[in-house]
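Ticket #4471: structure export looks truncated?
Reporter: QA, pipeline team
Priority: medium

Steps to reproduce: submit the single chain below to the structure queue and open the exported record.
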Amino acid sequence: MNTAASSGTCGNTEERAVAAVLSHNGEEFSGRHETRFKGAFKTHTMRKRQAVGRGRNAMNDKDYIAIVQCHLVKQRCSGYMCERAFHQRTGGFAHYPSDKTYRTLYMTCGGCCGRALHRKLGNLVRKIKTKEGIEKDKIVVQLSSCITNDSYHGPACPHLDYLKELIGKLGLDVRETTSISQTTEKRRGAGIYKT
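Actual output as written to the record:
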């Protein structure tokens, strides 16, 4: 897949993001974008099969959760369903023990291509160590469903691999998905949503 995300540069990512949303809503867009996004869906499906710090024991060692939401989606989404999923320990938070108290911080990726996320998380790692003595091994980054999956917000982020690479460079653990909508799951089962 020849995208800006895989090469580590931003390129004209606003155009690709708009094309992805238009595609998801059934509107026409250029074929070169279609090829890129079909590859992104295939790559995302393969990623979903990989184990990423699963299980309650892995989450017992964490104290701080940085929940990252899509910058474009956050312009119209309050984040309520992600927050609700965390407090009810459902969806992507089902592996977090309900009897443990976690501190949470909600932030956006900073916009396409997500490069600002590295600066934001780097700032968090430095500040939290300096001010509170919390090491980065106590922090987990939870990528929200609007980044990791198809939904009514749009398709999965075409820069997901790049985001995970940036998070990895900081030495932080990453988990995928927050809220899982029943409607979205039905559409995924019907083949309307690919990821």
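Status: closed, not a bug. The export was complete when the record was re-opened. Leaving a note from the reviewer for reference: The CA atoms of residues 60 and 100 lie 8 Å apart.
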